[in-house]
Design brief:
3-stranded mixed β-sheet; mainly alpha; globular
């Protein structure tokens, strides 16, 4: 829908403009609750060593299909989004892996050895973990509360954390148990409609 040349809603129109749209906003539109949760959480709790530095920006970064790590503020155009759609996000695809590895190494240089990196993406598959562990090793962390949760549950958990003003508990990815039993369902947030039915 967002890629259609006939789309007239605000995001699509801005994507077709020369100025583009922040990659974080675009991914939140495409991915829904899970990415919205990640974006809100990262913007709330990220603490980059040099706020506004070229590679870290606000401290919230996006893993793109073919351009590596990019600050969520990075503007992309419709052409860039179409190029993303041509690449398989897989650890064995060099079109994805090489830019991610290159940008992770550059980020590592920028943030220095004392800064930790928190991965809010899937920790159960190799597509993120395998590449990022090569660079950040023991400094690559993830929220332990993610274990056993699906995408939507993680998104809801992140949004609840932002609302409560409380960070999750981070543990190193290296050596961690990243698969586990499904935890209990999250309780509905009061004041927000979660289900509906016809009369």
């Amino acid at each position: 829908m967002v890629l259609s040349d006939r789309a007239q809603f605000d995001l699509a129109v801005r994507l077709r403009s020369g100025d583009g749209v922040a990659v974080g906003e675009v991914f939140a539109f495409i991915s829904g609750l899970y990415f919205k949760g990640k974006l809100a959480y990262a913007l709330e709790f990220a603490r980059p060593p040099e706020p506004g530095a070229p590679l870290t920006g606000s401290g919230a970064l996006v893993i793109t299909p073919s351009a590596g790590l990019r600050p969520v503020e990075t503007a992309i155009t419709i052409d860039a989004l179409r190029a993303f759609g041509q690449v398989d996000i897989a650890a064995n695809d060099p079109r994805y892996r090489d830019p991610l590895l290159k940008s992770a190494r550059a980020l590592n240089e920028e943030i220095g050895p004392e800064c930790e990196v928190v991965l809010l993406g899937s920790i159960a598959s190799a597509k993120y973990v395998e590449v990022l562990l090569d660079v950040f090793a023991d400094r690559l962390l993830f929220p332990i509360e993610f274990v056993g949760r699906g995408d939507m549950s993680r998104g809801g958990l992140l949004l609840r954390s932002v609302r409560a003003g409380e960070e999750l508990t981070y543990v190193p990815v290296k050596g961690a148990v990243r698969h586990g039993p499904r935890p209990p369902k999250l309780a509905p947030i009061r004041g927000i409609m979660t289900t509906w039915k016809k009369r």
